[in-house]
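Problem 3 from the worked examples.
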Amino acid sequence: MRGPRRKKHERERDLARISELYLQGHTHEQIARIIGEEFYQDKAVDFGVTPENFLTRRTIGNDIKTIEERFRQAVIGDIATLKGQELAKLGLIEREAWEGWKRSIGQAVTTTTREGGKNGQETTVRTEDLAGDPRFPQVILQAIEKRCKLMGLDAPLKLSIDEIDAAIEGLIGAARGLAEMAPGGEAPVDGASPGEGQEPGKG
């Protein structure tokens, strides 16, 4: 006779309850007993087992793994949603800053009218060159920096030991090549100064 098995809707119901019990700190054995007593009194009798033994600790462990994976996927989804929202906000801030910067450069024309002149009024037009408000580029740069940080683009470069060794060997090889190209032929050996380690009458 096949052992106790749950239907799909029963397992989903169990997962919701197990999640609560798991977060409350109950052990696998305690969870199995509580779930059995709450949901499987009748089924346990049909299968000739006690309610607390209807679900094994292994079954509870597998259910908890499913719950943890769902937790992870939910968190990943939430983080992706929040990132998208924050990136949209930063994009809006950057666009507004660019528009403000454009308005702060060019020329400002000021017209002043006062009593006097041939027609009873005198109009003065003054033109001023605008160099731009430096606060707007600062806002733009801050938005770019925050976007890079949010997307992980500013993460430090990580190299493995093998990659570091390969880079060092490359530098050593390049240094040897430069030494061989220098006047006088081969490079000094073991850090010896030119002339050392040579036979008398040579070099």
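Problem 4, a separate protein:
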Amino acid sequence: MEELAYITILYQKNPVWYMIERLRKLIFLLDNYKEFRRITNRHHDDINSFEILRPLLENRPYVPFTKYALSPYAITLVINDILLHDRACVVEVGSGVFTLLLARLIEQNQLSIKFYSLESDLVWTEKVRTQLRNEHLEQHVQFIHSPLGTSGWYDKSIIQKSLVGTKIDCLLVDGPKSVYGQERLDAIPFFLDYLDLNSFTIFLDDANRSGERDILQTWSKIIDIKAMLHAGKVGQITRQSPYYIAPGWNSEEMIRQL
């Protein structure tokens, strides 16, 4: 009652000020609602993506999804791109859950895809390789073990030897581990000569971080194609429509141009 009386007095004394305050509160509520909806949509799309990925997960050995792994939404996004655009050569930078799931997909759908997985951690590479071997899938992945140099990027000479004559039409960058925010910047300057420029797509995970956003903008200028952001966390640069591959009932709302 006291608060109501106070508001009534304020309105009587200065109705314009009162209306401005009410408008500010309304804007605040709308902004919070939009943020709540964005967060809810992201969680919903991860849950939805788990359902989409079920054929690659059910009745199979357990795959450890840690905080470092690609999100289910990101995995589904990349796999959709591979299938819908008939990608022939996929390179991932940073091995993990996606390595296992794409190998399963290649086996299950009998795809003719060259799949390279670049990793700096030899111990981790062997863990992933062992999982593939246990599932008789090792033949679908060509691992490239390359230690990190002083610049924080991989040994280019090792990669070059493995990719002679290769034309990449799908590049997924989820490594190396980002400490200062710029460790992944060298990916496009290096891989640019290997890209199939007639039809390609580039994905950058962790684009919710400012460092990766800056990298995405730099790559966009190098390639001269606008970068897109999926679900606030997966960056993409492509010649095809990004909306075509996006999983989820609200895909257009989850994609924006940077």
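Solution to problem 4. The two ends are 49 Å apart (CA to CA). Residues 93 and 173 are 5 Å apart (CA to CA).
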